[in-house]
TrEMBL record:
Residues 18-132 form the Response regulatory domain. The keyword S-adenosyl-L-methionine does not apply. It comes from Bradyrhizobium vignae. Pfam families: Response_reg. SUPFAM superfamilies: CheY-like. The keyword Acyltransferase does not apply. The modification 4-aspartylphosphate is found at residue 67. Keywords: Phosphoprotein. This is Response regulator.
């Protein structure tokens, strides 16, 4: 499936990138999904890391946008589990509790971006463009 995506630069490109959004807050999931879809991205949302890991589309995920702190499995634990399983999709972390230690942990684990909630939609799109450019169309595994 091809979708038209308008990158931050404003030009129109074709995108087959599947963006997985993982957050235990339904309003954040919905708002992020709406933002991504309004920019032409294909988005799927999950209420937990475990839901993403069970998803039949896991292999197609081009980027993961996830909350740092969730009840059963944290965003960092999700990143570690996906790397253990051989997935190299880039990660963008979002959190309502930003601090230097949490940011350093996320970036040290290999995150492409780290945003504090509430974040500007344009900031997320810029992180996503950077992540997808880094990913550069490689397969999810």
């Amino acid at each position: 499936m091809l979708a038209a995506a308008i990158p931050a630069s404003g030009g129109l490109v074709l995108s087959t990138s599947l963006i997985s959004v993982v957050d235990d807050d339904a309003s954040v999931r919905a708002a992020t999904e709406n933002l991504l879809k309004s920019r032409g991205y294909i988005a799927q949302i999950f209420a937990s890391a475990e839901e993403l890991l069970r998803s039949p589309q896991l292999d197609e995920t081009s980027c993961v946008i996830t909350d740092m702190q969730m009840s059963a499995m944290s965003g960092l634990e999700l990143l570690a589990e996906m790397r253990t399983r051989g997935y190299d999709a880039p990660f963008i972390f979002i959190t309502a509790f930003p601090n230097d230690r949490v940011r350093a942990s996320a970036l040290g684990a290999g995150a492409i971006g780290f945003l504090a909630k509430p974040f500007a939609g344009q900031a997320l799109i810029e992180c996503l463009d950077t992540a997808l450019n880094a990913y550069d169309g490689r397969s999810g595994i």
